[in-house]
Design a protein that fits this description.
The protein is mostly helical and about 100 residues long. The protein is built from 4 helices and no strands. Helix 3 packs across helix 4.
Length: about 100
């Protein structure tokens, strides 16, 4: 009883060349060691800014500090926090 179908004819069951583990990892290291050029490092340093949640920078490139300060002042004015805990919550909301 033959267990192969016509769909299986494209499968290649020939023996594959043996590549020693050391040679395999040397070849793979190109793809797993991260960027090495200054441009690559600069680009990858901005990965956390995809959504900004984990970014250490408050403003993205091109955003205005004055616009942020204006937004901050409007939120503080609108919420009028009267105790430090409320002020901290509004600050977290703004940022």
């Amino acid at each position: 009883m033959d267990s192969f179908t016509a769909e299986d004819e494209h499968l290649d069951f020939s023996p594959q060349e043996f590549i020693p583990p050391r040679d395999r990892s040397n070849g793979n290291s190109r793809y797993s060691t991260g960027p090495r050029s200054p441009d690559g490092k600069a680009a990858s340093s901005q990965n956390a800014r995809t959504h900004g949640c984990c970014s250490k920078a408050l403003l993205l490139p091109g955003e205005s500090q004055d616009d942020f300060d204006d937004l901050h002042d409007r939120w503080i004015s609108a919420c009028q926090p009267d105790i430090p805990a409320a002020t901290e919550l509004v600050e977290k909301l703004i940022v």
